Amino acid sequence: MTKEERDRGWLSTSIGGSTPTTITVRGKDLAGEVMGEMSFADLAFMLASGRAPTDDESRMFNAVLASLADHGLTPTALAARLTYTGAPEAMQGAIAAGLLGGGSIFLGPVEDTARFLDRILADLGPGATDAQLKSGAADAVRVAAEAGSRVPGLGHPIHKVTDPRTPRLYELARETGTEGPRLKLLSLVADAHRELSGKALPINGAGAAGAALADLGFTPLIARGFALLARTAGLIAHLSEESESPIGMRLWKEVDKRASETP
Known about the structure:
Helix content: 55-70%
Shape: globular
Structural class: mainly alpha
Oligomer: single chain
Number of domains: 2
Largest sheet: 3 strands, antiparallel
Number of strands: 3
């Protein structure tokens, strides 16, 4: 291969492509092998990983996406609905506004938890024993406490005792055989935090989702991407409701009224 040929080779992708008569994704014919044959979630898994999930992986992955789809009138949903109030002609802008709120408090813990757990595992090295995982969890929690940092994946503003998504994700991980070192480690992190602080913070659904996605083989960055993908479904639902039963304008007027009142 000549240098010129090599230089041309960088401008390519393994994700997919098209010809005048075909569309291909990850080596599969979109019309013949994907449409009507694979679920959207399985397609998303394949697009990101380069392979189709096994049946057990598919069940777990679908459960993770479902767990992140919606959580009511959260700031992300309100941002989307208020943006729609001001620009109902721009659905894409309203969805984008909602997704931009996916940070360290909402949705972001999916990535943050996966990174936190990955750092512990990297320090321990491959093949860590249960005792080493427990020790690593305790060390990481102590370091976070000394730095005054929050431990990602623990605590929830509404679910103070148990996030209902978390035990179900652990149950499904055991049923499907997809419970890996990160889900196990996250449980040990919660135990270590309780022992150190005396506070029984629950493992939140976003943290459990991040650990589960990492155990499925996805990087922390891609885990956040899937959190955003899942929440997009919820935002679409909120915008559909906003178009039919709007609260945005009334909400703005109520805020404006209260802000204008003399204390």
